Amino acid sequence: MNDALTHRQLQSLIEVSNVLNSSLDIDTIIDSIMHVTVSVIDAADGGVLFLYDRDQGYLIAKSTTGFDPKILEQVRLRPGESMTGLAFSARQCLIFEDPEEVERTTATLTPDNLRMMLTSVPTPPQSAICAPIMSKGECIGVITLDSFQPDSHFTQEDIRLLKAISHQAAVALEKAQLYREKQRAIRQLESLNYTITKQNEMLSRSVDIHGHLADLVLSGEGLSSIVRYLNEIFRCQTLLFDEVGELVELACHRSISENALTSIKQIAVAPVDAAKNCSVVEVDGSSFHLVSLPLGSKPTQLGFMAVLSVEPMDEIDLSALEHACTVIALELVKAQAISETQQRLKGEFIEGLFSGKVDEALIQQARHLKLDPNRNYLAMIIQCRHHVEDMQRVNRRRKLMELVNRIFIERFPHSLVVSKQDQIIILLSFSTAKSTASYTRQLTDFAHQFHWEIADMGWGQDVKIALGRAKSGLIHVGKSAQEAQKGLQFLKSYSINKNVISYSELGVQRLLLQNSEEELLDFIQETIGPLLEYESHRKGDLLSTLLEYLERNQNGKETAEVLHIHTNTLNYRLKRIEEILSMDLTDSEQFLNLHLAVRLHQYLDANGFHR
């Protein structure tokens, strides 16, 4: 039988089979096919194993003997191209017996492929044999053997042996492919099992942390306890910032400097698209991994949580932190709702109290707010003008409230603070042990301290403070509030160099608040109008002399010294004033009217009120 293999070929095939069955690694099998095939076929000086890439539509060299592999691996043969491509398309073993036939067939190579084939071997093949590798009725590749010796030729026995080897190669490649797919499936299962295990760990840890956090919330522990718990369980520095970047809570194993805190805040509150922002930061000479997570969601973002750890946090801990952020956000929303409700109730109470309609229900509400109706009270109003954006306004108002609590409420703990629109209203309560005048002076000093600290922040010109007078009993505090409002009106209406005023300080200036400008101008005109008319066409010596005379409490000697004039000259000017005004400066009633008219003229003239 012509297709029967000789004893030697059978021995060679058994050797090939043993080699191919010695491994299930596909790359090892591919290399083994070429090396064994070239070794058992005497005429073969070299060869290439091509496999067909279905996605690319090319035959690609996977293993080679006798050729430069670095060059040959770049060759891409289409079906029908050159000797290998013809065997692939024909699906049968082809032999090319002489150089002319080889040259004629390789002429179908593309210029690039021909160049690479010629440069990959020292001399062109003299003859060649190509056998397709068939698997399940499809050609999956080609074994091409080349002879570079003119006197060496491939025989029919070589064809039969190569066919048998290609069949063995197909079986070996199928087994290796199945093994690779099995290994891939095993790896996928292992990966899936690892993912499920990690997810279970993540879920379990997150549930444990979430449960503990829920217990803290239900027991009313608050944000401080939550942040301390996170600090302990993760062994990380934990910081909470509000929506404008102010530090709300802090739990650390080591102190953090102000500069480091500023750097952390800048990174933590920086807008990011991702749900979490991870980076490496330098904190007081040490490197930390910083994770910043948002609290709440846009557009109602409540703030950020920053966590500093020595080692990078894994996905389990990050997931647990995200759960923690949800709990913290809910706690912040709850705290915000409580605060808003308290402010609303306090605001309603203040409105009722200031209206003067104090009934038993309002007294009961006062007791609920821990205000003793029988103590002394003083109303203070802080007026805030804001020329900044909403976020800065929120930050500024929070700073003002912190300062109010530190300077006033900590010293007078039985008091009440209400923030309403552009005002902060403080109802200050103190005992009857000392005089109300003493407390008023003390509170006025604290108000000046408050404004000095505000001025250091650069907001001095935007904040005005007015105090009413101290009243005995809560039912009279509405009068104190009215006085504080009049003080603010005075600061607003008259351009005096003051930002803090007590109603007690106003004295005669209260007339400015209790009468219209028209009435005041009439009084001034009736009292000192002739003098103003007289001075309007002169140097103003008489008016300035009168002002100094009043300022020096009618002390002629001091007035003359300040004006650098002789006392006789002063007496002459005073006499002239009496003549112009038709009044006697020694008459106490006339002098009082004169004094009031001059003071009112000063204030109105300074603020541009003219008839």
Blueprint of the fold:
Elements: H1 7-20, H2 26-40, E1 46-53, E2 58-65, H3 69-72, E3 76-77, H4 82-90, E4 94-96, H5 99-106, H6 111-120, E5 127-135, E6 138-147, H7 156-218, H8 223-234, E7 237-242, E8 247-251, H9 258-268, E9 277-283, E10 286-295, E11 303-309, H10 315-354, H11 360-368, E12 376-384, H12 390-409, E13 416-420, E14 423-430, H13 436-456, E15 463-467, E16 471-472, H14 477-493, E17 500-502, H15 503-506, H16 510-514, H17 517-535, H18 541-551, H19 556-563, H20 567-581, H21 588-606
Parallel strand pairs: 15-17
Antiparallel strand pairs: 1-2, 1-6, 2-3, 4-5, 5-6, 7-8, 7-11, 9-10, 10-11, 12-14, 12-15, 12-16, 13-14
**CATH-defined superfamily of the largest domain:** GAF domain
Output the structural class.
alpha+beta
Which percent range describes the beta-strand content? 15-25%
C-alpha-based Rg, rounded:
50 Å
Helix amount, in percent? 40-55%
Strand order of the largest sheet: 3-2-1-6-5-4
Low-confidence stretches: none
**What's the overall geometry?**
elongated
Please give the oligomerization state of what you see: single chain
Largest sheet: 6 strands, antiparallel
CATH architectural group of the largest domain = 2-Layer Sandwich
Using the coordinates above, name the CATH class of the largest domain.
Alpha Beta
